[in-house]
Amino acid sequence: MIPRAASAEAQAVDALLRTSLAGTALLLALLGLLVAWITLRRAPRPAALPYAAGAVGVLVGVVLVADLMLWAQSRRRVRDTAPEGPEVDRVEVLAQQYSFQFLRPGADGQFGTADDLVTLDRLMVARGRPVVFEVRSKDVVHSVSLPSFRTQAEAVPGRSTRLWFEPTATGRFGVVCAQLCGPAHYQMTGVIEVVAPEAFARHSAQATVDRAAMTAAGARPAGIGWPWGR
Ligand SMILES: [Cu+2]
Description:
Helix 1 packs antiparallel against helix 2 (51-74). The protein has helices at 10-40, 51-74, 77-80, 197-216; strands at residues 89-96, 99-104, 117-120, 122-126, 131-137, 142-146, 151-155, 161-165, 171-177, 189-195. 23% of the residues are buried. Helices cover 34% and strands 26% of the residues. It has two domains: 10-80; 89-216, Sandwich (Immunoglobulin-like). The protein is of the alpha+beta class. The strands form two sheets. Strands 3-2-1-5-8 form a five-stranded mixed β-sheet. Strands 4-10-9-6-7 form a five-stranded mixed β-sheet, covered by helices on one side. The structure holds copper (II) ion. Copper (II) ion binds next to loops. Copper (II) ion binds at residues 142, 177, 179, 181, 185, 188.
């Protein structure tokens, strides 16, 4: 039902999904058994369900749901803390009808300068290196959704949002817009390619060389490259 997991965070998300499913399935089975028992038992009519049975049912339900909520709360850490440090791959993402622009700061490490590296609907990242996206929108509300990395963030006009993940498997993974943003919303897709660290280093070096050539020729990225937020 859901695509192959490809990030360090995916394990926690999948465990939460599986446990929620198992918990609700157990609750459903218990309720089904209770209903079957009430319906099929040969009891003198009118049959009144003992209060104790009802109370036990409610108690079991409350304990199951409360457990799930507490456990989900303990998992919020996965969502609430962005990785930091020099090894983090920072990427600005500008969503617009109907594409994603990805921007890296280039050799100087600063966003919004002439050596910024921009790609359209494609991004290469390194396996095992944490990635942080800072997301903005040029027009309407979009959503940057990365199903294989089990993360997603809204792209809201006028503000920045963040999402992060650590790719653990190489391959090509989809990025899609998860907000109905216009008639061609279904076309708003892209590819995140996860490669081995050595291949990523080669790619980055080549991109920097290419970018320098473009800068010399006068080409500059437009509409993207804002100062990275605090
Ligand atoms: Cu969109």
